[in-house]
């Protein structure tokens, strides 16, 4: 517990989360404004449209994977990993605490993203003389966004441990999201199992899958497997190697 | 307090530490010396669990660092001064470490006061001078009230005032019963501070003994100047003493008292009789000298 408390303290004593939170809020404001503001009022009234609007909260998952990676790699970038391992020399314990810290931080961020999505949507809908339907049919993506963000944070921590270099990890994540997922879409049905596709399916939270998207539970299982693989490989690498330092 | 047993650490084809064994006794200040690249930092990093040994073992109080129940309460380590998140305040940096080690927050303010950083505690570390960062490192090392301090080149980049502060601090820590193991290449500092030294070269142990003994071993010849140097040389050699002459000057491998007595017995006037005192630097350079090609 003390290691987890330290990880949370690390996260909140720099401005990393503040900037990510503000950036996420600004991005949600922008995309929701474009999405709702440019749509025909008749279409906006449809339940399926409202559900897809609420799924914008899933953007938090993109931020979550970056936060997960940076919570690990920032320690290597600044060299603070040395003192972290001096305080918690059992490396697996520190890495698990980092994973726990990332999940807690991202949980809060995802809930805030959901809240922001709801508030922005409500403001736009009421401004256009429409009302939101808040029911089980439409609210599932909010839970999906939280779940996908948690999975993304876990994957991010694993990637951070694998790369340990901050620039490398962030560039790899962005390249995968911007290019890799698009390229893999050409693989047909198998693309549903790609990390981004699986997390998108968790956000969409459809109980049944389709040709291009898994159902929510298979997608969640795929996401958990990605977390296990990335964290397993990353943690093994960190445990089995020297902590970088300078000197002779 | 520290035991290093047959420690070897290889990085690919390079051997940084080669079958190194030594121990550091409790309650003393032990200097850890060696030229750049000798393997000092690597040895310390293995000791602290940050690097994995290829073979052998390094332990503190009989346990590997990762096996210590309360590591920060046993060992306080000062590594590189740049190991800080620049956006975090000095106080928050210590709070994080205290939280990780299960140390009460009250210790944070105490150690900040001890290293005279209370006024800068709420400033970001990015704005600290090198000396302030080094003091913060010392504060971090003191958080758990450890009985052993391990310091890697703590005087690096410090101004004379900072070096004096560090020297006084380490001395008072040792006077209070603490053990200090400090690597340094500032030999003058170590000779003033350490009770004994461990010297390594190319990853191997070349000396481990009290500083005074080492300096005594490095003591040079007795310098003598006499108008009757040739007669004195003959007299010294007859007494089985090795000496070299250069005009009126002699370099005699015997204590000045013996040389003076022999000269007096023979009625040879002396114009100069000086004992060349040794230094840790001379001993160090002698021990770590590269063989001539």
3D structure, described in words:
The complex is a heterodimer of chains A (248) and B (293). Chain A is 76% helix and 0% strand. With 248 residues, chain A is an all-alpha fold. In chain A, α5 packs antiparallel against α7 and α8 packs across α9. In chain B, 36% of the residues lie in helices and 26% in strands. Chain B is built from eleven helices and 13 strands. In chain B, strands 5-6-7-3-8-9 form a six-stranded mixed beta sheet, with helices on both faces. A four-stranded antiparallel beta sheet of chain B has the order 11-12-10-13, with helices on one face. The radius of gyration of chain B is 24 Å and the shape is elongated. Classes of the chains: A mainly alpha (248), B alpha/beta (293). Chain A binds chain B through residues 2-3, 5-6, 9-10, 13-15, 74, 78-80, 82-91, 240-243, 245-248, and chain B through 16, 34, 36-42, 45, 48-52, 65-66, 68, 71-72, 75, 77, 79-80, 82-89, 92, 95-97, 99-102, 140, 152-153.
Quick gist of this model?
Chain A has 248 residues and is an all-alpha fold. Helices cover 76% and strands 0% of the residues of chain A.
Tell me the strand percentage band of chain B: 25-35%
| Main sheet specs of chain A | none
> What's the level 1 CATH class of the largest domain in chain B?
Alpha Beta
Overall shape of chain B: it is elongated
Question: What pair of chains forms the biggest interface?
Answer: A-B, 31 and 43 residues
In terms of DSSP E residues, the strand content of chain A is under 5%
Helical residues, percent of chain B? 25-40%
Please state the structural category of chain B.
Answer: alpha/beta
Helix content of chain A: over 70%
Low-confidence stretches of chain B: none
Give the count of helical stretches of chain A: 11
């Amino acid at each position: 517990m003390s290691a987890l408390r330290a990880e949370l303290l690390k996260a909140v004593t720099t401005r990393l989360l503040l900037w990510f939170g503000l950036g996420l809020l600004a991005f949600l404001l922008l995309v929701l404004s474009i999405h709702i503001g440019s749509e025909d009022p008749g279409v906006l009234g449809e339940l399926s449209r409202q559900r897809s609007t609420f799924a914008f909260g899933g953007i938090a998952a993109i931020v979550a994977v970056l936060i997960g990676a940076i919570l690990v790699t920032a320690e290597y970038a600044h060299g603070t990993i040395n003192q972290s391992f001096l305080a918690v020399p059992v490396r697996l314990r520190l890495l698990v605490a980092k994973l726990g810290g990332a999940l807690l931080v991202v949980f809060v961020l995802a809930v805030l993203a959901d809240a922001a999505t709801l508030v922005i949507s409500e403001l736009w809908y009421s401004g256009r003389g429409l009302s939101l339907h808040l029911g089980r049919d439409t609210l599932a993506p909010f839970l999906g966004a939280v779940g996908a963000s948690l999975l993304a944070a876990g994957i991010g921590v694993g990637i951070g441990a694998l790369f340990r270099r901050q620039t490398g990890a962030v560039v790899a994540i962005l390249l995968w999201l911007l290019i890799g997922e698009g390229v893999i879409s050409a693989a047909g049905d198998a693309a549903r199992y790609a990390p981004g596709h699986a997390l998108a399916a968790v956000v969409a939270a459809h109980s049944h899958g389709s040709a291009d998207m898994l159902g929510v539970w298979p997608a969640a299982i795929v996401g958990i497997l990605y977390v296990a693989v990335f964290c397993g490989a990353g943690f093994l690498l960190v445990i089995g190697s020297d902590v970088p330092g300078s000197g002779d | 307090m520290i035991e290093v047993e047959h420690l070897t650490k290889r990085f690919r084809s390079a051997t940084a530490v080669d079958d190194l064994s030594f121990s550091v006794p409790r309650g003393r200040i032990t200097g850890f010396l060696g030229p750049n690249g000798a393997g000092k930092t690597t040895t310390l990093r293995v000791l602290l669990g940050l690097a994995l040994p290829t073979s052998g073992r390094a332990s503190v109080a009989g346990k590997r660092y990762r096996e210590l129940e309360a590591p920060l309460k046993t060992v306080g380590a000062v590594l590189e001064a740049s190991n800080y998140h620049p956006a975090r305040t000095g106080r928050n940096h210590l709070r994080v470490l205290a939280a990780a080690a299960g140390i009460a927050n009250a210790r944070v303010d105490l150690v900040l006061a001890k290293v005279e950083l209370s006024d800068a505690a709420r400033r970001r570390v990015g704005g600290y001078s090198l000396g302030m960062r080094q003091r913060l490192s010392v504060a971090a090392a003191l958080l758990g009230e450890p009985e052993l301090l391990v310091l890697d080149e703590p005087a690096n980049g410090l101004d004379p005032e900072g070096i004096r502060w560090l020297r006084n601090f380490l001395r008072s820590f040792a006077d209070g019963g603490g053990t200090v193991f400090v690597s340094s290449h500032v030999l003058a500092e170590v000779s003033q501070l350490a009770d004994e030294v461990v010297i390594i070269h190319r990853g191997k142990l070349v000396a481990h003994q009290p500083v005074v003994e080492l300096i005594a071993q490095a003591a040079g010849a007795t310098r003598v100047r006499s108008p009757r140097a040739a007669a004195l040389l003959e007299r010294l050699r007859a007494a089985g003493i090795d000496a070299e002459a250069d005009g009126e000057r002699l370099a005699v491998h015997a204590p000045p008292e013996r040389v003076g007595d022999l000269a007096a017995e023979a009625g040879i006037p002396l114009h100069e009789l000086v004992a060349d005192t040794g230094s840790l630097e001379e001993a160090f350079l002698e021990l770590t000298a590269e063989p001539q090609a």
